[in-house]
Design a protein that fits this description.
- By secondary structure, the chain is an all-alpha fold.
- The protein has one domain.
- Helix 1 packs antiparallel against helix 10, helix 2 runs antiparallel to helix 10 and helix 3 packs antiparallel against helix 9.
- It is globular and about 45 Å long.
- The protein starts with a helix and ends in an 8-residue tail after the last helix.
Length: 302
Amino acid sequence: MSRRGWALFIAMCLIWGIPYLLIKVAVTDGISPVTLVFLRTVVGALILVPIAAARGSLVPVLPYWKWIVAYTAIEVALPWFLVSDAEVRLSSSLTGLLIAATPFAGVVLGRLTGSDDRFDARRLFGLVVGFIGVGALVGFNVSVNDFGAAGEIGLVAICYAVGPMIVSRRLSNVPNIGVVAVSVVLPAIVYAPLALTHLPSAIPSPQALLAIGLLGVVCTALAFLIFFALIGEVGPVRATTITYVNPVVALALGVTLLGEPLTIGAVGGFALIVIGLFLATRRPKRAAATVEKADEPLVEAR
C-alpha cells in the first residue's frame, strides 16, 4: 500500500471510530435520537449535495430512485436512529464493539443469497468464534434492562451488511457521491417533522453542539469523500478492512474521554471477534485477487 493509501486508511479508521463517542455526548445532553439524525444529515447534505451537483452526479441517480430509497432506509435512516437510541442506555465503547459483528452478517447474507460460494470449514469456525465473542460482549457487559438496546445494535449490524450489497448489486453503475448525497437528503426530509417537535427545551451545551457538528462535517461528509479516495487508491476489498480497527478506536475513546469501564468481558469478547473476523472473511490469495479486480466499491455509512 502506498503512503497515500496508508494515510487515507488511518484517517478512515479514526473518523468512523469516533461517531459512537459523539453520539453518546449528544444524547446524554438531551438531544433526542430523531433530532440528532436530522441535524447530522442536514449538515452532511449541505456539504455533499453541492459537491455532487458540481460533479454532475445527481441527475444520473434519478432513474435508480427505488434502490436509492431502499439503500437510504437500510444504511442511513434506520441504523443511525437505532444507534442513537441504543446509546441512551449503552456505552459508546460497547456500541462500537457490538457493531464489529457487521462483517459476520455480511458473510452469512452472502452465503444465503448465493453470492459467496467459498464457505468452507475455516469460515464456519470463524463465524462460531466471532459470535461467541459477541455473546461474551453482551453477556458480560449488558444488563437485562439493556438487552433491547443491544438488539437494536444487532439490527444495525445487519443493516450495515445489507446496504453495501444493494450498492454493489443494484447501484454499481451510479456515481457514488450522488447516491450518498441523496441518501443524506432523504432522511433529513423524513425526520424533519419529528425532529422539529423534539427539539431540546434549552440550548444544548457547547460539547453537544460540537458533537453534532463533527458528526455532520467529519463523520458524514468528509468521511465519505475520504472513503471514496481510499477505494480508488487500494480497491474496495482492502478499503473495507477498516472494520477491524473502528471498534478499537471507539473503545479507546469511550474509556479515556468518557470514563467508560474497560471490562474483561469487553477485551475478551473483542479479541474473539477479531479472530473470528480474520477466519470468516479472509479469502485465499487467488480468490482475493480475483475479487479485488471484479468487486464493486462498497459504501458503508457510520
